[in-house]
Structures are given as C-alpha cells and as structure tokens.
Amino acid sequence: MIPAVSACRTVLASAAAVRSARKPIISEAALILLLLGTACGLVQAFSSGLVTAEMNEVARNMVKGNGFANPTSTGIETGPSAFVPPIYPYFMAGCSLLFGRVWSLVAIWTAAAVAYGAHAAMYPTLAEGLFGERRIGIWAGAFAAFLPFFWWYPSWDTIWTATAIVGLCAFWIKHRSHGMLGHFGVGSAAGLAFLLNPASALVLVPMPVFFRAGRWTKIAVFWAAMALTISPWLIRNYVALGACVVRTNFGVSLQASNNSCLAITQAAFNRSDCLMDHPTASRSQALIMRNLGEVRYDRYKLHEAETWILANKTHFMQLTAFRIIQFWFPDPKYYPKPAIYLGMITLLSLCGLFQLRKRRATIFLIFVLLSYPLMYYIIVADPRYRVPILWASLLLAGAFLNSRFRPPSPYTEGATRGSGAQ
Questions:
Q1: Are 156 and 385 in contact (CB under 8 A)?
Q2: Quick one: three-class SS letters along 57-73?
Q3: Domain boundaries in the chain?
Q4: 258 contacts 309 by C-beta, under 8 angstroms
Q5: What's the CA gap between 391 and 147, in Å, rounded?
Q6: Is the pLDDT score of 18 beyond 90?
Q7: pTM of the predicted model as reported, rounded to 2 decimal places
C-alpha cells in the first residue's frame, strides 16, 4: 500500500503544481499515471515470458497459415476454433508477422505495458464522470499502476479488456448526450470489446441504461451497433463450426473445474492429474475434440459437468463457496502478491462503498461487482478473472483513501462535488 499512497501524493502534488486556469488537472494527472503505469508494466514485463495458453496456440497457427484453429498445445490439429475470442489472437499473430518471433514478444509486452499505463490513466476521468471528484480516480489509478501481477497479462486479453471497459465507461458517461452517430460509434467499440472478451458484455450492455441521457432510441442504436460489430464473428462460426456460437469453451471449463480432483484454484488444477483430462494438454482429449468438432465436444463436456454436479451436490456447493472467497481474497499459498493486494483492495472498497452508498453511480458499481463474478464462482478461481472489473473496487477504495489522505493544500476541482452521475 505504501508505494501507491506515495505515488498518489506525488501525482496530486505534481498536478497541482502545473495546473493552470485554462488547463484542467485531468490532463496532468492522466499523463503522470500513464507514465507511471507504463514504467511499472515495463519493469515487470521483461522479467518473464509468455505463458503457454490457447490464445498463443491459435495465433501460432494463424502465422503458419492454418487459420483460426487448433487451440491445444498437443500438436494435434483439431480444426477451426472458437475456443477463444478473436481479437487478441489476431493481434498476437499480427505482431509475429510484422516483427518476427523474437521481436514480436517485445512488441506484445511493450503494447501490454502501454495498455497497463492507459488503464491507470483513465481512472480520473471515470471518477469525475461518476462522482464529480477526480482525486478519487487519482487514488484508484495509482493503485492500478502498481498491480503486482502484470506478468500474466500479455498471454491473455486481461489488461486490454480492463482498459477497454474503463475507457468505454468513462467515454459514455462523459459524452452520453451526443447524437446518434456518436452512440453508434461507442456501440461499435463496445462490440470490439465483446470480441476481445465476451464477458465485457456484462458491464457494457447495461451501462447505457444506468447512465441514460435522452431517448431510449439512442440506447437502441448503441445496442444495434454492438450487435452489428459482433455479427461477422457469429456468421464465421456458423459457417466454420456449424453453430452460431460466441465461444466453445464453457462446457470444457465447467467440467475441468467440477470433477473428482476438487481443485478450487487454477494453480491447484494445473498441479493436479485432472490437467491431463483437458484438451489443451491431453492428446486423447484433443483427438476426441477433433472427431466431434468443438461445438459437440463442448456440449459433451457440459453434459459431463452437469452429471458430476448432480451426483455431487455437496462437493459442488463447497467448491462454489470456496471460489467465492477466492475471487475476493485469493489464496496466498498459490498467489502470494495478488492475495495481499486484492485482499486489501476488497477491504478498502467495502469502506468506500459505505461512504458512497448514497451516490446514484454507486448502484452501477454494485451491479457490476455482484453480476460479473457469477460465472467465475463455478469454475476454478484465478486472480486474473477479477482484473476486468477491478476498477469498480479500486474506485471505491480510492474514495475511502481520498477522504483519509487529503492534500495539505486543497485545490478547486474541475467539477463540483455534487456533479457527475449521482
């Protein structure tokens, strides 16, 4: 907590020193947070490499000319895939084609570090739109810049999804009174975020309802643009896989998480024998996937999961209860740094929730914090699953810290305390 507190005080002091009557504090605060987050990301980035994951495998196959296919690391060609969403694998493949095998790793890491910094830099704008107080966002951004598990990010879409959600929420709240064309543009961007990670829809689809300005037709335009952006991927899957699906991994994930191994966390699962029953690591399962096709294989695994759950209701309830706890307070045995960081943020956010309980925007944050994690309570727990909505907890924690650590020389906010979405 000490580095983030010191950084936040530095940001507040620096921004106050350089502000002028014509230039709002947000630009200076955002720039400092961008640089701070990018620097922290780069420091962590080159101490590790990419983790082998399905997105890497699909990207590798695209580079080889095999198309969006073969998500397993078994070497078996399982055919066209929708096991992962499309945008990030295409980005990884593009980096490989442009920069080559070695330098593409540098490009992917560097881009993730910049996204890491951009994610931190957007908090002041989001906090101003939600609560009319930029300092809350500066606190949240400072903590975001010091996320202690950046090394995961380049292997998955995690930080990109988090940045997209924060950016779109901030933009919509600030510009929701714009015309139809603007709503269409933001809806199209939300569609791209969906193709980056479909779980983002749990935040972005209801967002315009909570922060509506004007007629419902504008929200309809937003949703229509989102649907149009997603439709080419659905059509591709219908042609390639025979079903109009977004992804084909829910049944696989549910079965891998609920079986006789009783693994609570992803780390525990990776160390168990059940890993060898997963198609990404098991040649026999990869062969079954190839023979059935991804859609039928996913349904087959979903049936296996449902059968086990119905036969082991007590174990399932116990696993779910432990995973709920793990989502908010990770196990320090497997995730030592994230356990300390996320546990602290959870406790601070509860204090901030009580403090902001009368603000209308808090209802949106509560909705996000209650609805988004539901699907992650029934699969193996991993701290990276929380990152796309960590902004909600960080804003609440920032509100609490802002009330406890006021700058010695208060400055005039660009927006009054009562402004914003209250």
A1: no
A2: HHHHHHHCCCCCECCCC
A3: 1-47+122-155+330-415
A4: yes
A5: 12
A6: no
A7: 0.89
In DSSP notation, 59-127 reads HHHHHTT--SB---SSS----B--SS-SHHHHHHHHHHHHHHHHHHHHHHHHHHHHHHHHHHHTHHHHH
Q: State how far the Cα of 43 lies from the Cα of 155, in Å rounded to an integer.
A: 17
Share of the chain above pLDDT 70, in %: 86
- Per-residue pLDDT, averaged over 326-351, amounts to 92
Instruction: Report pLDDT digits (tens) over 161-171.
Output: 999 999 999 99
CB 402 within 8 A of CB 394: no
d(CA 253, CA 246): 15
- Is the torsion defined by CA of 257, 155, 40, 392 positive or negative? negative
Name the residue with higher pLDDT: 109 or 351: 351
In this prediction, residue 27 carries a pLDDT of 61
Confirm if 157 and 115 have CB atoms less than 8 A apart.
Answer: no
- The pair of three-digit structure tokens given for residue 420, joined into one six-digit string: 């914003």
